[in-house]
UniProtKB/TrEMBL annotation:
<dbReference type="InterPro" id="IPR050078">
    <property type="entry name" value="Ribosomal_L11_MeTrfase_PrmA"/>
</dbReference>
<comment type="function">
    <text>Methylates ribosomal protein L11.</text>
</comment>
<dbReference type="GO" id="GO:0008276">
    <property type="term" value="F:protein methyltransferase activity"/>
</dbReference>
<feature type="binding site">
    <location>
        <position position="154"/>
    </location>
    <ligand>
        <name>S-adenosyl-L-methionine</name>
    </ligand>
</feature>
<keyword id="KW-0687">Ribonucleoprotein</keyword>
<dbReference type="InterPro" id="IPR029063">
    <property type="entry name" value="SAM-dependent_MTases_sf"/>
</dbReference>
<dbReference type="GO" id="GO:0005840">
    <property type="term" value="C:ribosome"/>
</dbReference>
<dbReference type="InterPro" id="IPR004498">
    <property type="entry name" value="Ribosomal_PrmA_MeTrfase"/>
</dbReference>
<protein>
    <recommendedName>
        <fullName>Ribosomal protein L11 methyltransferase</fullName>
        <ecNumber>2.1.1.-</ecNumber>
    </recommendedName>
</protein>
<dbReference type="Pfam" id="PF06325">
    <property type="entry name" value="PrmA"/>
</dbReference>
<keyword id="KW-0689">Ribosomal protein</keyword>
<feature type="binding site">
    <location>
        <position position="131"/>
    </location>
    <ligand>
        <name>S-adenosyl-L-methionine</name>
    </ligand>
</feature>
<dbReference type="GO" id="GO:0005737">
    <property type="term" value="C:cytoplasm"/>
</dbReference>
<feature type="binding site">
    <location>
        <position position="176"/>
    </location>
    <ligand>
        <name>S-adenosyl-L-methionine</name>
    </ligand>
</feature>
<keyword id="KW-0949">S-adenosyl-L-methionine</keyword>
<keyword id="KW-0489">Methyltransferase</keyword>
<dbReference type="GO" id="GO:0032259">
    <property type="term" value="P:methylation"/>
</dbReference>
Length: 283
């Protein structure tokens, strides 16, 4: 599969603007991102690329009033992609406790949790605030996860499923609509030597056939969370934990309102660069 690489140069550069654009691009089919000094590059399968789709985004229009945003486009061959991604993928340590690295990076002695990721075209390397917030929140809730059945909606690379397994979850189901994510998550699960994670391709409609979960993780985006939250709650056991991310601090009240309507009680949230991971339990 060939990919289109779109480079975004933002002047003056602000990471929050790059993050906001990345989040919106994720909703129109872009599924790989890497930061540059002046912005970021975004990747989309060539078959899904539509030049106008970017300029039609409300947020793009909004930012171009205050920032100069220049885009350049090139098509890249499938075999080039892995090389590009490998070169851009640096190991990351979250809170001195979790190391996320590729097999070709050196291990860090004494680290509590190590997650191996094959750098490919899937979201979930720990570099994005939402992933790091989710990883931290999983550790905050270790006692509620150990021995339990966990769902990871929008699993991407499977990074959250892998940490859940390493904190002692009994069995984990990861679901993602993207086939790349499915393939990459499967590779990563193997690379981490885990045998209690099942990955499925699909969306919330798959949940009807699932037995209830003790814990649900969902790092997707505001609109999908608002739409699918009732389906998540329907598959959550009473007192079960739902941790959601992929939205901004200003959207937290909207998420809390939908959560209350869906039968959840708000517990707490973590925030980084205006992104939020919020925790709720089922009444
Ligand atoms: C922000 S990424 C999160 C990846 C990873 N869980 C993490 O925390 O880094 C969101 C993922 O959700 C997937 N996704 C988008 N819409 C979805 C939906 N309706 N149902 C399931 N997965 C979805 C995307 O393909 C993407 O891999």
């Amino acid at each position: 599969m060939n990919y289109i690489e779109v480079t975004f140069d933002i002047t003056p550069y602000e990471e929050a603007v790059a993050d906001a654009l990345i989040s919106e691009l994720g909703t129109i089919g872009y599924d790989g991102f890497s930061y540059t000094d002046q912005g970021f590059t975004a990747y989309i399968p060539a078959k899904d690329y539509n030049a106008q789709a970017i300029t039609r985004l409300e947020i793009f229009d909004f930012f171009t009033r205050n920032y100069r945003i220049e885009t350049s486009v090139q098509e890249i061959e499938d075999q080039d992609w892995n090389k590009v991604w490998e070169e851009n993928f640096t190991p990351i340590v979250v809170d001195d406790r979790i190391l996320v690295r590729a097999g070709f990076h050196a291990p860090v002695p004494g680290i509590e949790y190590e997650i191996l990721i094959e750098p490919k075209m899937s979201f979930g390397t720990g570099h994005h605030s939402t992933t790091a917030l989710m990883l931290r929140t999983i550790l905050d809730n270790k006692e509620r996860i150990t021995g339990k059945r966990v769902l990871d909606m929008g699993c991407g690379t499977g990074i959250l499923s892998i940490l859940a397994a390493k904190t002692g979850a009994r069995e984990i189901t990861g679901i993602d609509i993207d086939e790349w994510a499915y393939n990459n998550a499967m590779e990563n699960i193997r690379a981490n030597g885990l045998n209690n994670i099942t990955i499925k391709i699909g969306d919330a409609r798959l949940l009807e056939a699932e037995a209830p979960f003790d814990v649900i993780l969902a790092n997707i985006n505001r609109n999908i969370l608002l739409e699918d939250m009732p389906h998540y709650v329907a598959r959550l056991l009473p007192q079960g934990l739902l941790i959601m991310s992929g939205f901004y601090l200003q959207d937290l009240p909207l998420i809390q309102e939908r959560a209350a309507q869906s039968g959840l009680t708000f517990m707490t949230y973590r925030e980084d660069k205006n992104w939020v991971a919020a925790s709720f339990y089922k009444n």
